[in-house]
Each structure stands twice: as C-alpha cells, then as structure tokens.
Amino acid sequence: MTQILLRGSGRVRARLVARARPEAAASLSHSAQRPLPSVPSSTPAGAWGLSTVARAQPWRSQLVARRRFASGIPGGSPMERYLKLKNDGLINPDPRQESAMAKLDDLCLRIANYTPSTSRATPAAKLASGGGGGFFGGLFGGGSKEVKKSAAAPPSAVKPTGPRGLYLWGGTGTGKTFMMDIFHDAAPTDKKRRVHFHEWMIDVNNRLHRLQKARASATASADDLVAQVASEMMGEAWLLCFDEFQVTHISDAIIMKRVFAVLFERGAVVVATSNRPPEDLYKNGLNRPLFTPFIPMLKDFCEVHDIGADVDYRLISSNNGEEDMRVYIHPNTEKEKALIERKFSRICSGQVLMHEAQVEAQGRRISVPRSAINSRVAWFDFKDLCDKPMGAADYLAVAAAFHTVFIANIPKLTMQERDQVRRFITLIDALYDHQTKVVVTADRDAITLFEVSEEDRKTSVADEIFAWDRTVSRLTEMQSTKYLSEAIRRLDPSDFLGQFTLKALTDEDIKQMWLRYDADDSGELEMGELRTMLEELLERQQGHSNLSDEAFDASVSAIDINKDGKISYEEFEQYLGNYTLIETSLTDPD
Fold it and tell me: What is the C-alpha separation between 387 and 381, in angstroms, rounded?
C-alpha cells in the first residue's frame, strides 16, 4: 500500500491512500515490454471511436455529435434521426450534411435484408506474393525480383456482390464522425462494428501475430493467416464503420490491402470517414507503389463522397469564449497555450494553490507545480513528469491523488528521447488505469507524436516502438465521450461539484453536469437521475442530502417546463443557469 500525502506550503492538505498493489506497480513498470493488447470481439462497437470531445462541435452540435446522443434518439432511419435533431434546434441546418445523410440513409435501406457470403471464391494462394522471407516477407513480397514485381500488381479483380459502402471525406470539424455514428446506431444488424481505424489496425496486427505463433506448420503462407484473420472478423461483424481512415506505415499499408481484399470478397460493407480522398492515402509514403493497388479496390467497394462543408463546427465559440472542448490540444502555439490555461483556471474556479504541493509515494516526494485549492486537479509540464527519473509507482501516486491532470508542452519525441518516451508510456498507462481525466497540449497529434523511421520500425528491438501503439490507443480513448463521462461519474459528489461555482455556472460547467447526471446516456434526465442531482446539490449547499418529497416535487415543477415527466437539456440548462431558482426549489416549504 502506498501512502500519499498531498502537501502545500508546509501543511497537509489531503491524505489519500492509493491501493496500488506491488504487482500492479510491477506490471506498469514493465508495461512498455508487454505485447499490444488484442481488442476482444466483445468490445462495444463504439468503445474505441473518436466521436470525441477532442474533435467535437461546440455544444449545440456537441450535444448530439457524439454517439451517446445519437443512440439516445428514438428509432428511425439515419435521415429521420438527423432531421429530428435539426428540427429540435440541436444542430444547425447544413445542406452538405443532409446530402451525405441521404447517402447513408440509402445505404441503411440497402443492407436491411443483406446477408454476406461466408465462402471465398478466390483461393488464398492467388493472393500470395510468393517467395520467402518469413511472415512479413510474404506480405511484402519475399526476396525475389519476380515477387517484388507481383507485390505491386493489382489484387485479384474482386467486384462487389452486395451493397456498396461509403467513403466520406472532408475537412476537420465538418460532422463526418457525427453522421457516421448516427448511421451505425440506426443500421439494422447486430453484426456491426464502429472503430477508429488505427485501433482496428492494431487489432489486425495482434490477430496476425497470434496466428503466426500458434500455427502448427511453417508452410502456412502470410495470405493464409490474413484469410484467417478476415474470417474471424467477418464472423464478428460484416458492417465496418471506420473513423479517421488513414495510412501511416508501410507495414499497415500492405497488410490492410490483403485483409480488405478478403473482407470485400466475402461481402463486408465499409463506411469510412477521412480527412483526405482515397487518392491521397499514404501520399509520399515509403514504397507507396506497394499500396496504390488498394485505392481502386476501395473505390470499387465504396462510393466516395466529398462532404465539402466549409464550416468547422469545432471552432464555433460558446458564449463564455471557450473555443473548443478538446482535451488533447495540438499544435502547441500561443493560442493553444492560452486555451489550456483557461481550462485549468475554469476547473479550479480561479482558486489555484500559489505554493508548490507534493505527492509522497514510497518515501519519495513528487513536486506538483500547480494544483486547485478546492478540487483534486493538478498541473504539470511534460518535463516535470518525464525528464526526471520517475517510475510506475510515482505515476500511480499522481493518478490516485488527482482526478484531473493537466500536462503541458509535450514535445515531438524520437528515439533520441527514448527515456522520456518510456516514462510517458508508463505515465499514460497509470492515468488510464485510474481513469484519470487528462488535458494536454502537444506539438503533434498522438499518432505522429513519436517519430520513428521505417528502418527503425523494421529493425529495432526497442520496446518503446511496439508499446507506442498502445499509448496512442489509450490517448485516443481518453479523449472519447465514453471515457470522459465515466471519469466524471466515478467522482465523489464533493470532488465533482467542487470544480464549479454554483452561483455562476458557465456553459461548459453545465455540459459537464449533464454528462454526469444523464447516467444512461438517453439524452434526457429521468426522475431518478434528477433526484440524484438534486440530492448532491443539496449536500453541497446545506451539508445534507435529505431531500424531502415536497422539495423534490417543487424542483420538478420548476425544471420540467413542458410537464412531460422528463428533463431535456434545454430545461436542465435553464434551471442551472438560475441559482435563485435552485435555492428556492430545494428549500422545504414551511
């Protein structure tokens, strides 16, 4: 058991006990050496997605631009769901989005009675590149000139036999993820998976690695293993919804070409979002000619649609001047530095400890440059955590002491900063395992933050290179609404409400409160959820949570304006924006 003392200006501010078992700390200390975890087949379809706070539109669009709101809308086709949001005033009219939604709506109709083939017409041998070179040698074409030449040849001429999918591309913040999530939730099949493309590629690589280790005979070709992976995936889901479709590594480029050839041939239907058209995928990448045959195949099986929207909904400011709701903020210019400072000041309610605090773990003291006075929120610079000789136990102590951690100025990383990379991987493991909310500024997005040459990636045995994919995965998930909602809901009421000035709640505060109290993600507060909120507010105001039936009824009458027995976000927002109304409704009548 690790004793943690949070100290400030020589006096004890809080005493916490981190139940960090020695074996847990040991596991974290070796986390960079573990193989990448497989994504289990039972992973919820949206668990890895990026319908996230990181890229979401501002609140009127954010309220529904994420999966949790789309899934809360009563049934209907994708277009019906989209139009309901528009008619309710929750999103702005956008003809370009409606055009894309019409295509998604049509696809939803075409897959309604669709059942893909379970057999494969083209034998795996026809896709093989031949030649030696082991598993990856098979994928890359082995060693002979003839093999290398054939690797760049077009795949077998597989043509669609079922519904053609859709490839949505356009600039950032134009609603691609939002629309795909509505489609995914409305799609009339249980055999569907919604996943960030990077996560899916990690899953593919893990499955290939598992099969390679388990195969009984060395005669099995790389294409045989690819076919087995595709078969597994088709058994789990034939409708694949990919967010952020992109290619960054030549190994991924080759593997995905092979996997998709089998998936498409067996009847998989793909819906994908991307910031670039198919022709620009893996542009200027190493050995790109090995990948280019995939592009016409993708266009055969997916209609390509340019959203062409010229509005970035993420950049529409809310009334209090908050530019966006990102928690992974990049690039790290003066504008982004000012943004994270505002976020920190807001969550601390402007009350920041002016003296350095300390977290104590196993006899060592970890300096905390800035922290909130009334809430367990801390601020570190990247150098504070990763330039010093710190380990898993230190990071576990930080994760246990604070529910929200700000990390500023994460630089581009290379193998020249191997120690910092290793510590950062371990830090993210610790914060993720404690479900800590993390807000960062970084020079680059998570995928490109650690720059490794293809030569190093192929030849290096450094654990950091292989563990980084897990770190990207976790940084991605830590931006998701699902992760952030769960982090908010697990806080003690005092910790949660201690972040806010109830007499002057900002729009951002109200959004955070909605995420906490709409516990079933239905898009409405039911009476049980409302009672929980009122009891916690009463505890904060009056020191007890004994909410009488009379006070509850009075509060319901004040909040439920249309008297339908449920609380909409607009009603919730209006109630919390009037502190006098809160005080009056929670006061027992004489």
Answer: 10
Read off the tokens for 462: 């450094």
The pairing of strands 165-169 and 269-274 is parallel
SS (H, E, C) 399-414: HHHCCEEEEEEECCEC
User: Which one, of 191, 197, 189, lies nearest residue 167 by Cα?
Assistant: 197
If you search the block for the tokens 């099986």, which residue do you land on? 301
Q: How many helices (H) and strands (E) does the chain have?
A: 27, 14
Cβ neighbours of residue 233 under 8 Å, at least 6 residues apart? 204, 207, 259, 263
According to DSSP, the residues that pair with 480 across neighbouring strands are: 52
SS3 assignment, position 541: helix
Cα–Cα distance measured from residue 295 to residue 173, given in angstroms and rounded to the nearest whole number? 25
Q: Which two tokens stand for residue 581?
A: 């109304």
Question: Cα 129 to the chain's mean position, in Å?
Answer: 36
What strands lie across the sheet with 377-381, from one edge to the other? 328-329, 437-442, 404-410, 377-381, 370-371
Q: What is the average per-residue pLDDT within 190-198?
A: 89
The stretches of 88-214 forming alpha helices (DSSP H) are 95-110, 124-127, 134-140, 145-151, 176-186, 197-214
pLDDT in tens, 119-158: 554 444 344 343 344 444 455 444 434 434 444 444 446 6
The residues that bridge with 196 in the sheet, in sequence order, are 243
SS3 content of the chain, % helix, strand, coil (to 5): 50, 15, 40
Cβ atoms of 57 and 65 within 8 Å: the answer is: yes
Amino acid at 492: D
Q: Long-range contacts: 10-19, Cβ < 8 Å, 24+? A: 13/353, 13/357, 14/376, 14/401, 16/400, 16/401, 17/400, 18/361, 18/396, 18/397, 18/399, 18/400, 18/401, 19/400
**Cβ-Cβ contacts under 8 Å for 522 (sequence gap 6 or more):** 72
491 SS3 class: coil
Report the percent of the chain where pLDDT is more than 70.
Answer: 75
Q: Which residues of 246-268 are buried (b: 16+ CB within 10 A; e: fewer)?
A: bbebbbbbbbbbbbbbbbbbbbb
How distant, in Å, are the alpha carbons of 116, 122, 211, 224, 291 from that of 158?
A: 15, 9, 25, 18, 17
Beta-carbon neighbour count of residue 480 at 10 Å? 24
Angle in degrees, CA 547, 523, 570, rounded to 5: 75
* pLDDT(453) > 70: yes
Would the pLDDT of 24 be above 80?
A: no
